[in-house]
Amino acid sequence: MEERYPISTYFIIVSIISGVISAVGKSKSYSYSGSANFLPPGLPKSLPPLPNLLADMLNSDSDSIHFASSDFGNIVRHAPVAVLRPSSLNDVISLVKSSYGSSTPFTIAARGCGHSIRGQAMAHGGVVVEMLSLREHAMNNNNRGRTVVSSVYDSHTQKNRHYVDVGGDTLWIDVLHETTEQGLTPVSWTDYLYLTVGGTLSNAGISGQTFRTGPQISNVQELDVVTGTGELLTCSPSNNSELFYAVLGGLGQFGIITRARIALEPAPTRVKWIRMLYKDFGDFTRDQERLISDNRRKQSKGLNYLEGILLVNQGSPDNWRSSFFPPSEHARILGLVKKHGIIYCLEVAMYYDDHYHDYVDKDLEDLLGGLGDIPGFRFTKDVSYVDFLNRVRPGEIQLQSQGLWDVPHPWLNLFVPRSRISDFNDGVFKNIVLRNNITTGIILVYPMNRNKWDDRMSAAIPDEEVFYTVGFLQASGFHDWQEFDQQNRQIIQFCEEAGISIKQYLPHYRTREDWAKHFGVKWCNLCQQKTQFDPKKILSPGQMIFS
Ligand code: FAD
């Protein structure tokens, strides 16, 4: 198994490497000339010979290596031998072809924003491709042509069908701005938009819209993909469909996404955003499930977004991801939390525009009437559509300014079958979480409908019509992240012992057996697809599935 290095060891190694590199002169070559003795065991001393042009583009200076050896999780460090900053798609293709054609192939990881938690975008001893470099080159050349909005007439529905073509390196925030400028928008989002299209499509891309629109992977019409043999293929449900379904939710194993065609709809302009509080988990989940059910939605335009958050004794009912509750209400809300230990906060949103302006309040009243939330604890905001979707960004900026963004993030994201969510509440929220009392983070819990996911795609989800996503989005200090990790292990162990068939989202496993269990009936197929599309097991080694 690949070796992992604790952060302190890593820093020592990197400092030694940097020292040696600066001693031999600021090398831009891709081998650690002169530093081989100091490399961690397992790292090749250099890459096989590469075409000159490509070799010139590889960076092995300590800053580049340091950057590519870290991610948002700040928990593991895996040093690549070099970093490629491609200026064009051809650079990516050449790199993969060079590895594939070599008798000593090296691993390659596409890195979007590196917002992974456990080194998934790293390439220990291989090459990391900084996908954002494509974006920078396009911007420097004032080339916004990589994001193209198009409309075609669909004779079947007799309506225009809209879509946008974007690079795999594009940030979702840019997709939002560039499509809404034209009155259109994708329908499925993540909570946070400073993530790349390639990165989220490799996982699934989920948020409060997923119950209604499916995850982001359900809203892709076509992809361009560089496979592990260096071939650039266009794929869709009707063309190279096996590659298309493998790549979506495929954790980067089958190809590098260089273009995605994403479905668009007319963009609303405003959002009614509501939070209400529950003391009883049964009432909370019953209402969540009612609100996401098809029947409920048929009654009106329906909700566009639904999530849920746990409020535990954290000093403020708000969190960095959103300042929502009026400050004057904080004391009252905290009083509730103190009294009940946990308060469950249901969060919903309905989009509207000028045409719908006069109906939105009435529709919401009808939809939310008769729910079991605590009377007197409903709070509403009316915000622009763009601000709603970009709601996490102000919190990020604030944490950045306080130096609290680049800290360890021992996150755990799970999908929990609906039939066991109550047991999960009893065993995890009310027991492990309250007992450990280390919840300096956010805990999300909200349901989604399985019929909005496409089982032909690689993403692994529970085998029930409704399942919940539960996200433990914790931030810790550099010296105490193990405590959070320990809690994560307790949670997983509890589920195993209680027979709760969870699936990890943004998964992290160490053994092949665990991966086989994770993918379940899809596993054999995925192994065959790996052999077909990445036979030398070059791509995304940081996921540690086939390496
Ligand atoms: P990276 O971390 O750089 O890469 C992730 C994986 O994808 C790696 O294996 C990498 O090799 C591979 N990869 C990257 N680019 C490509 C490509 N072009 N082609 C093929 N493979 C590629 N996720 C959600 O679903 N919903 C959320 O609401 C959400 N909120 C988040 C909030 C924050 C603050 C953070 C840090 C993360 C959040 N995530 C969320 C998780 C996020 O979707 C994943 O971490 C995703 O992988 C991040 O994208 P990235 O561009 O940083 O990818």
List the helices and strands and how they pair.
Blueprint: H1 7-23, H2 52-57, E1 58-59, H3 62-68, E2 82-84, H4 89-101, E3 108-111, E4 127-130, H5 132-140, E5 148-154, E6 159-167, H6 172-180, E7 184-185, H7 197-201, H8 210-213, E8 220-227, E9 232-235, H9 241-247, E10 255-266, E11 270-278, H10 281-292, H11 294-298, E12 305-311, H12 330-340, E13 343-352, H13 360-368, E14 378-384, H14 385-389, H15 393-401, E15 412-417, H16 421-436, E16 441-449, E17 466-474, H17 481-498, E18 503-505, H18 512-519, H19 523-533
Parallel strand pairs: 2-4, 3-4
Antiparallel strand pairs: 1-2, 5-6, 6-10, 7-10, 8-9, 8-10, 11-13, 11-14, 12-13, 15-17, 15-18, 16-17
Bound molecules: flavin-adenine dinucleotide.
Residues 72, 109-116, 120-121, 131, 168, 190-192, 195-196, 198-200, 202-207, 251-252, 256-257, 506, 540, 542-543 line the site of flavin-adenine dinucleotide (FAD).
Family: Belongs to the oxygen-dependent FAD-linked oxidoreductase family.
Protein name: cytokinin dehydrogenase
Enzyme class: oxidoreductase
